[in-house]
Amino acid sequence: MNDAMPQWWLAVVGDTLIWARLVVLETGIAEVLDSDGGTLRYDDETAARMALLDAEFRAFDGLDEDDAAMLGFDLDDIEPPQGDDTEALLPQMVLKLGASH
Question: How far is the C-alpha of 68 from the C-alpha of 75, rounded, in Å?
Answer without folding.
Answer: 6
